Amino acid sequence: MLPDIDPQDIEIRGEFDVTFPGLSRQPILGFSPRQPIYRVDPDRMPFLESDDEIVTSVPISQLEPALRPDHHFFSFSERRNLFARAGYGTYQSPEVSIIAEAPVRENEHISLDFNHRSSAGDRDFSSFGDFNTDLQWMRQDGPTRWALGVNGASSFNYSALPGPADNNEDEVLPDPSRISNTTFGMHGKWQHLEHAYRGWQSRFDLTHFTGKGTTGDDEKSFNETNYNLYLNHFRDGRHQEQVFGFDLRAAGSLYDTIDDETQYWLTNAAGARYRHQFGYAHQVEAWLRFYQLYDPVNEFDLFLYPDIFYRFEGTGRVQASLRLRGFVENPGLQKLHAENRFMIQSDNELQHERGLQIHLNAGFDLLTDTRVFSGLDYRQYYNKGYYLRSQDPANPFYSYQFAEEAIHVEWYSGLTHRIPELRTKATFELGFNFTSMDEEVVPSGYIPYVPLVRGSAQIMSQPLSWLNLSTWLDFSGKRKTAAEDTEADGFFQLGMRSDIRLHERVGVYFKSLNILDQDYEVWHRYQEQPFQFYGGITLHL
Fold first, then answer.
1. Less crowded by CB within 10 Å, the N or C end of the chain?
2. Residue 533: in which H helix or E strand, if any?
3. 3-class SS of residue 335
């Protein structure tokens, strides 16, 4: 209700404005200053289209099937926290492999890699044991990644039938002979990548290696401390197809031979890089490196070597590459022992190996699922090392010697074929080697223990989702030794493996090695294992 107002209190002016004294402070019934709010009816039913109505509203062009990418049935394995395999084979041969990863905190985790394999052996061949492990911590913050790790390894090898030296087939060496070694080291890396064409990379390795050779009551030992440092920087140029960069390398070793002589070698290098992409078909990358070398024989040397790489990617499924480079290969007792486990360095100092390499490779798709490839590798050595069996019956091991000139030419060809319907992939390769050395240094005139012919074949198949099958064949032809008219026989190595998944996390595997049960030697006079059968379990977490 409006308040009572005396008519005399109402003033009417010429502007037709009427003033009601005190009315602005009085509430007016039926009026609210708030804006209206429109509420949705809770009983409202939404509008729904039927399937037919939806389809009729879509344009015809959108109903056509999209082109799917090619199906690749060999995919990357799923990332898991633990993969473990443990098995046992004939001749008391256990094997264990563990790969584990665990998060520490966000963007930070640790990983473990553990491997062990051994065999008690028999009178007719060498027994052995190999163990290695690596523990690593990794962290990633955006484009930056750090990693630190420690590693260790231990191995031993026996020779049940050592036999004579290369130049004396009638001389029988003492039995048995044994060689063992241990390794401990640490490593780290740092990388910062802004994108694929700009960033920094660095890493370091520090390793201590010790070895011991025993023949009867005679024992010989040796050791080595080795380091490697590496720094690389690259960045894009003004044009997207250009990349510039440089790298710095430093490596060295301090080692003691079995004659208690302490020696060392050094390798320092600095290089400049340029890469250019010409369209989609051609790519050229060139390095120019400056080397400063030192070893006990050649002392200080300076070299300037190029490294030029060209690659062609044709539209007709044709690929080709050519590389021309000068190279320097670092010596090292650990590196040599990994290649020849019966090697013990005596009074001969280690030297750098260097030379010129020309490598040509070409391949093309013969059919939709068949690819053919071939290549030629030529190496001219100006200082080449080779393995020589000791002439001393009390030291039935190998040493590493050097020759000033050597040539190694290899031609290889092969093909890869896929059968998508059977989830099968097969690869075959055959190679021929020609080698030459100064006959005054190496009487045979060949680089010792390089096969004249080699070949390999591998077939992998997944006929069922829970079954993986693989088989492989490695062939090595006859190999010349350092002695004249002496050679090591060739051999075939046939193996098979099957993995059966019983559960998402548990499976079993079976493996056969040397199925042909051949008596063969990788290194002359050291018999390898006969036929072996393994069985075990696998675990995925």
1. N
2. strand 532-540
3. helix
Task: Read off the tokens for 393.
Answer: 């019956």
For residue 362, the cross-strand partners are 320, 374
pLDDT band, residue 7 (cuts 50/70/90) = low
Which amino acid appears at position 461 of this protein?
A: S
Q: Is the dihedral of CA 427, 428, 432, 433 positive or negative?
A: positive
Q: Kindly report the length of the chain.
A: 541
Q: Could you tell me how far CA 118 lies from the centroid of its own chain?
A: 24
If you search the block for the tokens 């300076």, which residue do you land on? 302
Q: Token match 């050094």: residue?
A: 266
pLDDT tens string 120-164: 865 556 788 899 999 999 999 889 999 999 999 999 888 755 444
Q: What distance lies between CA 378 and its chain's CA centroid? A: 24
What is the 3 state secondary structure string of 4-51?
CCCHHHCEECCCCCEECCCHHHCCCCCCCCCCCCCCCCCCCCCCCCCH
Q: Is residue 330 a contact partner of residue 243, using CB atoms and an 8 Å limit?
A: no
Rounded to whole angstroms, the Cα distance separating 252 from 262 reads 14
Q: Using an 8 Å Cβ cutoff, are 149 and 138 in contact?
A: no
pLDDT single digits (tens) 356-405: 999 999 999 888 889 999 999 999 999 999 988 877 666 678 888 899 89
54: its two tokens: 């939806």
Written as six digits, the tokens of 165 are 């030296």
Q: Are strands 506-513 and 532-540 parallel, antiparallel or unpaired?
A: antiparallel
Contact by Cβ (8 Å): 331, 345: no
Amino acid of residue 248: L
pLDDT digits over 205-255, tens only? 999 999 888 877 777 788 899 999 999 999 988 887 899 999 999 999 998
Kindly state the tokens that stand for 224.
């080595």
* Predicted local distance difference test score (pLDDT) of residue 527: 79
Report cis status (omega within 30 of 0) of the bond before 176. Answer: yes
> What's the number of CA atoms in the CB half-sphere (13 Å) around residue 75?
8
Instruction: Please state, in angstroms and rounded to a whole number, the distance separating the CA atoms of residues 142 and 16.
Output: 75
CA–CA separation, 479 and 447 (whole Å):
9
Nearest to 406 by CA among 386, 436, 378: 436
Whose tokens are 């010349």? That residue is 480
Instruction: Provide the Cα torsion 235, 239, 242, 243; round to 10°.
Output: 0
Cβ contact 414:428 at 8 Å: yes
Q: Identity (one letter) of the amino acid at 151? A: N
Q: Evaluate whether 2 touches 29 at the Cβ level (below 8 Å).
A: no
Report the DSSP beta bridge partners of residue 486: none
Beta strands in 345-452 (DSSP E): 353-367, 370-389, 398-403, 406-419, 424-437
Q: Is beta strand 398-403 parallel, antiparallel or unpaired with respect to 353-367?
A: unpaired
